[in-house]
Amino acid sequence: MKAPLLGHGSQREEPPEGWGNPHSAVSKGATRAAVLGALDGLVSNLCLILGVMAPCLNGEETDKTVLLTGTAGILAGAFSMAVGEWLSITAENEHHLAEIETERLHIVEHRQEENAELMDYFVEQGLRAETARQVISDLEGHPEATSRLLNFHAKFHWGIDEEDLSGSASVAAIVSFVAFASGGLIPLLPWTCPCSVVESWHTSGGAISTDLCLKVKLALTVALSTVAMFTVGFILALPTPTNAFYGGFRHTLCGMGAAAATFGIGYAIGAAIG
């Protein structure tokens, strides 16, 4: 039989066999950037492509216009997401660092008041006053007392840890760029082969019309995007209490709703200016 994790006055021992910490690893900036980037790239470029493609059915534009627009949309969106992610995380970290430095000065200059505030917080969380007072005493006896107290105050006031601020804004920006570009490429894939090339592959007796080619590309675009959105929603819901299928359908419904609205508006504008 294994010894308990914490013996009386002893060091921490190895956890018992079969015990584990099932929490998933979470990277503050990169995970959010990857999820938002992929979904934003997929939905926004799908909407952009359908909005530009709709006038093609009226003969106002060509499928090459859709390809160029979609490509420009990917690049513009990916760079915009990357820059926005870098600036937002950098600004947020700088703000937190400034607040933490202010709190550090308060702890140094108003030690008694800050300790009393922290003790009240511990009591609010369920500790007895004697226990909370002992916690403060133990922290004050630590060689790095100010740093330890500062960490508690940072979590108490803002729910952050100084270690969380070490996340790289550059990594989040790169992840956001790649994720957006990857998501935006999915609805663009059917448009990488122009209708003129497809028509040249067939004999005159079996040639496909431009109108049919556009409709086939439209169907492929919607099908690929639907599968991608459902997959993303399904995977994101797996580690949560939300039903995975519900998560997939929710993402698909929201994305396709936005795409349908854009397609309808684009079609109406194309007909009006035609």
Strand content: under 5%
Shape: elongated
Separate helix tally: 9
- Cα distance, first to last residue? 83 Å
User: Main β-sheet, in a few words?
Assistant: none
What is the mean pLDDT? 78
Percent range of helical residues: over 70%
Alpha-beta classification: mainly alpha
The stretches of 5 or more residues where confidence is low (pLDDT under 50) are 1-10, 21-27
The SSE string, one letter per element, is: HHHHHHHHH
Q: What Rg is obtained from the alpha carbons, in whole angstroms?
A: 28 Å
Number of DSSP strands?
Answer: 0
Write up what this structure looks like:
- The relative contact order is 0.16.
- The protein has 9 helices and no strands.
- Helix 1 packs parallel to helix 9 and helix 2 packs across helix 5.
- By secondary structure, it is mostly helical.
- The N terminus is likely disordered.
- The termini are far apart.
Show the helix and strand layout.
Layout: H1 28-57, H2 63-109, H3 111-124, H4 129-140, H5 145-158, H6 169-188, H7 195-200, H8 210-237, H9 244-273
Helix pairs in contact: 1-2, 1-6, 1-8, 1-9, 2-3, 2-5, 2-6, 3-4, 3-5, 6-8, 8-9
What attributes does this structure have?
274 residues; mainly alpha; disordered N terminus
Task: Give a summary of the structure in a few sentences.
The protein is 73% helix and 0% strand.
